[in-house]
Specification:
Radius of gyration: 19 Å
Number of strands: 13
Structural class: alpha/beta
CATH superfamily of one domain: NAD(P)-binding Rossmann-like Domain
Oligomer: single chain
Distance between the termini: 37 Å
Order of helices and strands: EHEEHEEHEEEHEEHEEHHHEHH
CATH class of one domain: Alpha Beta
Number of helices: 10
CATH topology of one domain: Rossmann fold
Length: 296
């Protein structure tokens, strides 16, 4: 029997890849992006009918954290996540046949800047704007009173995939000789190949896990190692570093907040691995090489 998944934010990098992955293994997928069936991320509408009979809902909705952190953009980053989570919870509560599984996006920003501390799903929340957003986001998921729906907060790291996400600008910078260390190069970067991210979502739908799950690979890398490995793969030995003050200046000119690039989060996928998930890309070199090979 064909199973149905509803992907909210299906036109984005993660949503589009997950749609194609689930369809390739026999799922019927309904995508909801802004304007589809009245979906606006905060209001009830005709889109609710798609929840009935769905086996899973996966919600990626949220404004990009790479927006400059003005007061207006901070409000948008937070409200876009809370509003979509709350309206989905309300719709599921009123559904005659609510989906048995709801996977809601979160992020490793939950942990804040933690230096060399090894962080599994039982580590407490950190401090800072991103941690506050993720904590409120996950609270909104927990507050949805859905006894029949298993809920997962997917704390995703840097997703590496061909032609989109973080890889496109990183590849370009490395080839231009600008792919050096960020700050002191010691920050931990939790990454995951987009194929493993999609496979993990499929695995979690079939599993019995609930609560937070770290969607990261098993081998987080320091920024220095990440930059060096990427330069080796693209064949550019030069990598001009970017000091922290330059990132701060760039943020004032419209770039992302420096904490997005400099926070150190040594996150490990304890819950998924203990439940039996295995990675196709467990080391950084093979993941980067595959992304760049496929993007050519």
């Amino acid at each position: 029997m064909e199973r149905k998944a509803v992907i909210v934010g299906s036109s984005g990098f993660l949503g589009e890849y997950l749609r194609r992955h689930l369809e390739s293994v026999g799922w019927q997928v309904v995508g909801l992006s802004r304007g589809d069936r009245g979906w606006d991320g905060k209001s009830r509408g005709s889109w609710e009918s798609q929840l009935t009979g769905a086996s899973a809902v996966i919600n990626y909705a949220g404004a990009p954290i790479t927006l400059p952190w003005t007061s207006t953009n901070r409000d948008s980053i937070l409200s876009s996540r809370l509003d979509s989570t709350r309206v989905l919870g309300q719709a599921m509560l009123d559904s005659k046949a609510p989906p048995p599984v709801w996977i809601n996006a979160s992020a490793v920003g939950f942990y804040g800047d933690r230096k060399d501390e090894i962080l599994d799903e039982f580590a407490p929340a950190g401090t800072g704007f991103l941690a506050e957003v993720c904590l409120a986001w996950e609270d909104a998921l927990v507050e949805a009173t859905l006894a029949a729906t298993r809920r997962i907060a997917l704390r995703t790291g840097i997703v590496l995939g061909p032609g989109g996400g973080a890889m496109a600008p990183l590849d370009k910078l490395a080839r231009l000789g600008l792919g050096g260390d960020l700050g002191n190069g010691k920050s931990w970067m939790p990454w995951i190949h987009i194929k493993d991210h999609a496979r993990m979502v499929e695995f979690l739908i079939e599993s019995h896990l609930s609560g937070p799950v770290n969607a990261v690979g098993p081998a987080p890398a320091r920024n220095h190692e990440f930059a060096q490995t990427l330069r080796q793969i693209v064949g550019c030995p030069i990598g001009i570093p970017t000091p922290a003050f330059a990132l701060t200046l760039a943020s004032k000119l419209g770039g992302p907040d420096p904490s997005v690039l400099l926070n150190s989060t040594r996150v490990v996928p304890k819950q998924a691995q203990q439940a039996g998930f295995t990675f196709d890309f467990s080391d950084l070199g093979s993941a980067l090489a595959d992304c760049l090979r496929l993007s050519r």
